From TrEMBL:
The chain holds residues 625 to 903 of 914 of the full protein. Residues 23-277 form the EAL domain. Transmembrane segments: none annotated. It comes from Denitromonas halophila. This is EAL domain-containing protein.
Length: 279
């Protein structure tokens, strides 16, 4: 039994050091990726449920490591957050997304808000609003064509700071969206204290609305309550016509998901937008 215990210990110790060294390597690779500009943004349309029009685009960070191939955002973004690298990476995302939005606007391909995801670490930087203001000025994108997406947990983590930063963002004129709604601990009534334009129901609640009455009830209730508070609602991760039909029945405003399009590289989105304009 003693031996087994020691073996176990050695097993965990070596597992732990593997985890730690993997993490360090990934962090160093991320640092290098930023220097070598290995990041790219993909864009996913946000669709008005009643009209089918594109009413927004969301920028999604992608990393194609030249040695290891594409790395999932859910793998590298937490490491970027823990190491603080998300601050310079996030500034790059903001600038690139706004420049792209303004390029499509000036070509008359699309003129809708560009949604950009923000991490808590970026939110904690006193310079966040200065960066946003600089990027808008440098790119020429009107403030109301930028939407900052914050998760519910980021908002609830420090409500005082959140209120200050969001009020500042509203003074600049940018839109505010709540991402992954339903996964954190908050209520719509509480969220109403913040200047929120829109909330996005998390994909985990949408996935099974066709088969799980509880999920359907949750989604329907979120939509109804948000509308009572005059907040727009977008459903994330819509993949089927059946889901879309149910959301339409509940008067959900907009959706995002593979049913319309996966996130696309800028060139592919450009082609899609040109096709839509020609049609
Ligand atoms: P998110 O903001 O909730 O983004 C939605 C995620 O769902 C994206 O995954 C998107 O590709 C995926 N998705 C969209 N439609 C569907 C669908 O119909 N079905 C399914 N199964 N998935 C769908 P992705 O691109 O892997 O991003 C994962 C997360 O990484 C994002 O979740 C966001 O939290 C974070 N992220 C992405 N880009 C950035 C960024 O620039 N900055 C920060 N801080 N976080 C980012
Ligand atoms: Ca998002
Ligand atoms: Ca989300
Ligand atoms: Ca998510």
């Amino acid at each position: 039994a003693k031996d087994a215990g020691r073996n176990n210990y050695q097993f965990y110790e070596s597992r732990l050091s593997t985890l730690v060294s993997t993490r360090l390597t990934l962090e160093n690779r991320l640092r290098r990726a930023l220097e070598r500009q290995e990041f790219e943004l993909y864009y996913q349309p946000q669709v008005d449920i009643a009209s089918g029009d594109f009413i927004g685009l969301e920028a999604m960070l992608r990393w194609n490591d030249p040695d290891e191939g594409p790395v999932e955002p859910d793998v590298f973004i937490p490491v970027a957050e823990d190491s603080g690298l998300i601050v310079p990476i996030g500034a790059w995302v903001l600038r690139t997304a706004c420049a792209q939005a303004e390029a499509w606007r000036s070509k008359h391909l699309i003129d809708v808000p560009m949604a950009v995801n923000l991490s808590a670490r970026q939110f904690d930087e006193a310079s966040l609003l200065d960066i946003v203001a600089d990027v808008l000025e440098d790119t020429g994108l009107p403030a109301d064509r930028l939407e900052l997406e914050l998760t519910e947990s980021l908002i609830m983590r420090n409500p005082e700071l959140t209120a200050d930063v969001l009020d500042g963002a509203k003074r600049l004129g940018v839109m505010i969206g709540v991402d992954d709604f339903g996964t954190g601990y908050s209520s719509l009534a509480y969220l109403k204290r913040f200047p929120i334009d829109r909330l996005k129901i998390d994909r985990s609640f949408i996935a099974d609305i066709e088969t799980e009455p509880d999920d359907a009830a949750i989604a329907e209730t979120i939509i109804a309550m948000a509308h009572t508070l005059r907040i727009q609602v977008l459903a994330e991760g819509v993949e089927t016509v059946g889901q879309l039909r149910m959301l339409r029945g509940w008067a959900c405003d907009a959706y995002q998901g593979y049913l319309c399009s996966r996130p696309l590289p800028a060139d592919d989105m450009n082609a899609l937008l040109k096709g839509l304009r020609a049609a």
